[in-house]
Every structure is written in structure tokens, then in C-alpha cells.
Amino acid sequence: MPKNYIEPQKNKNNYTCPHCNTLSQMEIDKHHFQSDFVGNSGHQLSFKNVVYIHRCQCCGKKTIWIDDKYVYPDIVAEEANADMPDTVKQLYEEAGLIYNKSPRAACALLRLAIDRLCNELGETDRDINKNIGALVEKGLPRTIQQALDIVRVVGNKAVHPGQIAFDVDDQNTALMLMELVNMITERMISEPKKINTMFEQLPQSVKLSIENRDK
């Protein structure tokens, strides 16, 4: 998601447009609909719905709610870290597309993505708790391990990859899991990559001096 992101809300006229990702003013139309039909008992039943249609003043595209339910378009979560392995990114991006419609399914995909990311980083134990612990020894901050425990990826209450913790799997949990996948990727892949690039740009004499110092 872009910086300074403001979540779309039906009663707000200023938020980040899910189409163009621009913080924009919205033109709001509100429509009332009533549906009447005869039920099995022969009685006439009526249902009233309110449709909220917001039009972005930047791109002109529309965002829609029916009553309190957001229905269009899909809100894509923050982009995957560019260094995320493809096998992990595939699961991450699928979860990012469905988290607002099916957060439980998104959380299951993201737990599997974390398990797969551990494998990509060389930790192949069947116990994800041990894999995360090994990554901590390699430099992953312990605070990330604690955050993973909160969302039941590691620890005594962890669910296995692909299983669903029904009592905690909501949109906020999915967003937290996505952020954690990005944080692990940044710390364990992106940062070492950046440091290695900086090292390779040093003069050869300086690199030799560093290598000799570390012997």
C-alpha cells in the first residue's frame, strides 16, 4: 500500500482510491432500493438496501458498498518485497487479492508462505517454530518471532501451515502476516543483498584490507 494510506470507508469523502492509489476527494451518491417478494408462507416480504457509490475525482472510477459491505473493487494489500522468492510471492500475492473477501483463506496462504520462506532461507525442519528460531540465530529480530507467535505462526498455539485459526483470522491478522513476510524478506534477503552490493563497489585495496582484518 502507498505511504499515508487511508482506508476506503463509505462515510468518508477523502481516502486512498483503490483504483489509482491516490489520496483523493470522492463524489458520493447514495441510492435506496427495496425488493418485494412473496415467501413460502404466502406473506409478502420486503428488503431495503442502501448502495453507496463513490467516484474518485482523480481517476473517475467508482468504489461501491452495499449497506455496510464493501463490494468493489478488490483492495490489494501492500506490494511484496521485490526480493521475495517467487514461490513465496505467488502465495503472498494471492492472499493480497482475497484478504478483504476471505481473510481466513488469506491467513492460511500466508502461514504457508512463511513456512515456504523459511525453506527458501535454508531452514527445512518440519517444525516452523524451530525454523524461525534458527533464523533468529542468523539475525532475524526476536521481535518478529514474537509477532509471529501473536498471529499463531510459532509457539504453543500455532496452527500448521495451511490450517486455519478461526478465532483470530480476520483482515487485521492477514495484513499483519503480510507485513511480517515482507519484514522477514527485508531482514534476511534484502539487507544482506544491499550490504554485499556496497562491498562490491569498494576499491579492491579496501576489500582486501577488510578481508585480512576479518581473518
Topology:
Elements: E1 14-16, E2 23-38, E3 44-56, E4 62-66, E5 69-72, H1 86-98, H2 103-120, H3 128-137, H4 142-150, H5 171-200, H6 204-213
Antiparallel strand pairs: 1-2, 2-3, 3-4, 4-5
Helix pairs in contact: 1-2, 2-5
Key terms:
6 helices, 19% strand, alpha+beta, 5 strands, 5-stranded antiparallel β-sheet, 215 residues
Summarize the structure.
The protein has 215 residues and is an alpha+beta fold.
Your description of this structure?
The protein is α+β, with helices and mostly antiparallel strands and 215 residues long. It has helices at residues 86-98, 103-120, 128-137, 142-150, 171-200, 204-213, and strands at 14-16, 23-38, 44-56, 62-66, 69-72. Strand 3 (44-56) and strand 4 (62-66) form a beta hairpin. The chain is built from six helices and five strands, in the order E-E-E-E-E-H-H-H-H-H-H. The chain is 42% helix and 19% strand. Helix 1 packs antiparallel against helix 2 and helix 2 runs parallel beside helix 5. A five-stranded antiparallel beta sheet has the order 1-2-3-4-5, with no helix packed on it. The two termini are 44 Å apart.
